[in-house]
Amino acid sequence: MTNKVILITGASSGMGKITAEDLIKAGHSVYCVARRVDKMQDLAELGGHVLQMDVTNEADIERVVQQVINEQGRIDVLWNNAGYGLYGPVEEISMDQVQRQFEVNVYGVARLTQKVLPYMRKQRDGLIINTSSMGGKIYTPLGAWYHATKHAIEGYSDCLRLELKAFNIKVVVLEPGMIDTGFNQGVRDHFSFESQTGPYKEVVNAYIKAMDNPPVAGSNPKVISKTVQKIINSRRPKTRYLVGRGSHLLLGIRRIFGDRVYDRMMLSQMK
């Protein structure tokens, strides 16, 4: 294993932060970026390079990429990890909220990737890891916009992988299942609670109940850290890594039994 220059978005919490810690300890030069620098001071104390960046702000992106290049001369790994979940009835979520969801989960990935690619092409080497979700292959009630962004990341990554093969740049899709991170709090922060009394109140209130009392616990986020390290250390990584509680089960049910059975199973949980 050689030490690499790694740029990670969404490094202030959850999967990104825990993985950044492990990569720093492994001796890599890790650039940890997020909107809240104060939440990454412990990463700086470990030896990480902590930078403020909003993935929806092109000036932020250009500044960060240029700083990495100025200091290191290269970027070996880009992990597009920043994102959040927007949940609520399609009819009742404003298009401003929808636009913000795509700006962070899809366009932010595209913006940063575009800025990094010229340097990876020049060095004719690189690895891009895009965080999708098992939600990029399945779906849940009230999650139309979140799942749409993750389905988009799946297709985007496949096309990008083909385009970059000639330059020896690998593209990998990371598909976490249920992971014990701050994701659920993020969903709650953006949830359409005003829909509790509207026409979709039954499914909305059932979803709120499920958020308050999740049926199963998520996997320890260390499984993501181990998976990312495995991807980085592999000479020929797989195109996709599905990892975390519930991921293989739910995808298997949909694949084997079809959408109708999967639909009934999902709706049965919303009571």
TrEMBL record:
It is an enzyme of class 1 (oxidoreductase). One of its GO terms (molecular function) is cyclopentanol dehydrogenase activity. Keywords: Oxidoreductase. The keyword rRNA processing does not apply. The keyword Oxidoreductase applies. Its EC number is 1.1.1.163. Belongs to the short-chain dehydrogenases/reductases (SDR) family. This is Short chain dehydrogenase. It comes from Streptococcus hyointestinalis. The gene is cpnA.
